[in-house]
Each structure stands twice: as structure tokens, then as C-alpha cells.
Amino acid sequence: MKIAFIGAGNVAWHLSQALAAAGHEITAVYSRSATSREALARLLPAAKPVASLAELAGMAADIILIAVPDAVIATVAQQLQVPPGTLVAHTSGSQPLAILEDINGARTGVFYPLQTFSKAKAVDFKAVPLLIEARDEQALQKLEQLAQSISDQVQRVSSEARRQLHLAAVFACNFTNHLLGISRELLQEANLPPGLLQPLIHETIAKAALHPPFEVQTGPAVRHDENVIAGHLHLLAQHPRYSELYRQLTDSIQATKNKV
């Protein structure tokens, strides 16, 4: 398939290269940043860096994928003009399919890769769940075919279910990463190497993948070990935000354990 990208950030960076490696032709890359669109286009043999949405609309593409920040998708949809019947899909986990309804004449869909992306870290798309949605069955089948060309995990998911999935992903990924950042900072304050926590982190994730996490919760909160909790809060006296977060997580663990 011939595919054009709107956006040249982390998602577009990885997704476009995965699609190109699977034999699809990336015809164009649009981004407001000349540096970003040119850097990505250089990695895609057939791609042209495009400076305007109007220019993009005149280029050949079976599918246009919108991979921009959520807050910008509606603006892009309002400005984008495409030939009738063009399939346009966004890659957002939290935004509904309906956000693309302003694109006159387009068939619309969602092509959401459930993964965290950074340009410096390679991603194996075969293991990345791709969640798709579309207005009509023909468009859905086209997105499904595209998704199956790069991933072994493709599912049709409604906008409402995808929003719930995205919320769960924020807890599993973004919040977890923030907590790992706090733990690293606390180790640095004690002049301890961050690698000390790696075996614990790996075991925690491995165990959570095998068992319901609430059922295998460990630590002072679930044991109601008040002396240890008080000692931790004392150590966090110079970090009031972390102290409040510690209290809230402790309360949540204890409340959740009572329900298990």
C-alpha cells in the first residue's frame, strides 16, 4: 500500500519504518518542523518531505496516517482535504474515531499501536498490539490487512474500549516509569548504583505477567507495617510531593488488599 504520514514524532518514526520494511511505500511525510520531516523522510526510500497539508493532499496515498499529539488531531482534521474515498486514520489511544469526521469525503479509522516509543530504542512491531477501528467494513478490512503485515496482535476495538485501554496503559507504563524515576533519584541521593534495583524490577514485572498483581502484592503497606511506613515517610521529609504520593499509594494498596 501507499501510505502518507502526518507527523514525524516517535510514533511516526517507528511505524513508518516498520511499514516500509514490510513492503509498503511511504510516499510522503508532513510535519511543521522541516528538520523532523526531512530526518524521517531520509530513512524512507520513496518518501518526500512535505511542507503543507495542501501539498500532501495532492500526493498518491491509499492511506493517510495521522501521528500527531492528541491536542492537534482535531485541527489537522479540520484543515485536511483529501480526494473522495481516501482512508484517513489517526494513531491515538485516547481520541475517538469521531474526531476525524470533519474530513470531507474521507473514509476514517484508527490505527493505534499499544506501545511506548522513543527514537533511540528499537521496537519489534511483531509483538506490538495494534488496535483498529473504522466507519465501514471495507475500511476496517484495509486497516486490518495493513496491521497484520507488521504485527501478530491485531484487534478490532471500539473508541470507548480503547479509551479504557489507554487509561490502563497510563497506569501500567507512564505512572510506573515515573515511580521508577523516583526510586532512581532516591538511590542517587544515597550514592547507590541504580543497577541494584534491576533484579527486583524484572522480578516484579515477570510476576505481574503471571499472576493477578493485586493477589501477589508485597511490601510494608500490604503488611500494615506501620513502623516501616513511618520510617519511610521520615526519609521523604525533604520530598513533600513524593511523601504525599507514598501515603496515597499506601492507602490504595491497603484498601485494595481488603477487597481481594
Query: What summary fits the major beta sheet?
Result: 8 strands, mixed
Instruction: Please indicate the count of domains.
Output: 2
**Helices and strands: which structural class?**
alpha/beta
Determine the number of helices (DSSP H or I, runs of at least 4 residues): 10
Elements, N to C (H/E): EHEHEHEHEEEHEHHHHH
CATH architecture assignment of the largest domain: 3-Layer(aba) Sandwich
User: Low-confidence segments, ≥5 residues, pLDDT <50?
Assistant: none
| The level-1 CATH class of the largest domain | Alpha Beta
Query: Roughly how many Å apart are the termini?
Result: 49 Å
Q: What's the gyration radius in Å?
A: 22 Å
Helical residue percent? 40-55%
Layout of strands and helices, then pairs:
Blueprint (H helix, E strand, L loop, with lengths): L1 E5 L3 H12 L3 E6 L3 H8 L6 E3 L2 H5 L5 E4 L3 H10 L7 E4 L16 E7 L16 E5 L2 H12 L5 E3 L2 H31 L8 H13 L9 H4 L2 H10 L4 H18 L3
Parallel strand pairs: 1-2, 1-4, 2-3, 4-5, 5-6, 7-8
Antiparallel strand pairs: 6-7
Can you give keywords for this protein?
260 residues; alpha/beta; Rossmann fold; N-(1-d-carboxylethyl)-l-norvaline Dehydrogenase, domain 2; 10 helices; 47% helix
